[in-house]
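Appendix B. One record, verbatim.
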Amino acid sequence: APLAKLNQTMTGQHRVGCGWGILGLVAAFTAAAKGWTFSNLPASNPNAASGNPMKGLMTSPSWSAWPYLQTVPSSLEFYYVPLNAIMNTGPTDFSGFTTYLEPKLADSASRNMHVVLRFWLDYPAQPTGVPQYLIDGGLTFNTYTEHGGGQSPDYTDENLLSALDAFIAELGNRYDGDQRIFTVQVGLLGFWAEWHTWLSTGAGDTWIPATTKDRVITSFDAAFETTKLQVRVPWPAAVSKPKFGYHDDSFAYSTLDGPANGGVTTPWFFWPQMLSAGAGNAWPTGVQGGELRPELQGCHTWSTELSVFNDNYAAGTEWHQDFQLCVDTTHATYMINFCAFSGSGYSGSELMRAQEASLNMGYAFQVTNIVAADSATSNAVDITVTVSNVGVAPFYYPLNLVLSCSGPAGSTQRSGSGVDGITADSSSQFVFSAIPSAECEGDVTLTLSSSHAYPGRPVKWAQGSDGTSVVVTLTPPSTCTPCTLGQQNSPCSSDDDCCSTCKNNGKCDAYTETCTSPPPPSPPPPPPSPTAPPPPTPGSTMGGGNGMGMG
């Protein structure tokens, strides 16, 4: 499970490094020939990344007015927008962008919240969202009574289709790449703009022709280059385009079939449809999300179902899939959940599981390795940082790794792009080469930076105390170059600064870069003992005596 992955212990291994002592985060570096690897990086901490931008559970300020409940940290807000709130009096009337949409985007931005948008024409039990000028021009409708009743416009009408083309083009012209918007759901067609007109009688099955769906996809594709797009179903015209992701608005209810659904196979469920359409691997480039099925949110008085976070939720039975399994399978980044932010919300174990579920969606980045080594450039260092994504999805906009440090000669900042390209359960290395040692002798700080994130809500690491940065400390490079580094008590030159006080008689300890005098010479061995005279020989004369040695 992602939480287990987030709580894994990160380890490295010590090896000798040339010339640099790196002491940050309790990891002490010493001198040697190749490089140093940290062994004590900040511990994994999912909560450090709480409230990260563009992920997790969310609600709509239209449903729960701000300030709504925030016991489950949120960074996204959802807006359902009727098309006639944007264009109403004619095919070039887009005054609603200024009068209706802009105030909502501004309000969300003031809270450092990104926005998910969906525009609609037909919301059951609500007045029509069709522009008035189309109604006045003779647009016809199909009336229905199910789902609270409503009127479904004629999706073959050329005036309506031209209006949709014009609206989509203007939407892209104004808002493609807008920092405030996380994703735009294609919407517009069908009940709740969910691309279906399902009625129990089957009467609505043909109300939206395939050609209309193709045309809407084509218009969105032409209008947007930067902002991510989502479709309710894996429509063929969208599947072939990496910019499109998908949203499952009956999440955990009709997401997974087979064993996850009590053994019942249901081909029209969301994930079987995705696999059948060849869209099972759309998540690395297209945002996946949706809405937790309202019955399974747990606060609606019209439903007797328990929430997916309840101790007694019947996970693994028909219409009751396990929430985390659905997230892991679909690589979901966000999920609408009205009940998490309404009234008293969740409490006890339900609240804990909802908070955990919000953290476990989308991306989660950790620094899992740092290596520093002498650069090929004199008096400089190369630093290699490994960043891992232990979440279930990537970050969908440009995201950089930023290295900042300072020293007596000034400061330096380097940025490496491509963190957004790290998909789930994968890592990438970022090499910062030839950093002048005199500009990087103090703390080295690693942060994440995205132009699509608000300054007030930066992307945080899923590790350490608060996730804002990973900090290490570098000491200056060695000046002991004439020594044979990496070998204790190696000979050194009399010109070596490190060993100058010892002159030619000194030894340079490459580990501490201090000089020690050589041990005093051993005392000379004692002179050999005199050789004892041989014993006397019988008959010989010694000392003038008689032959018997006696006077």
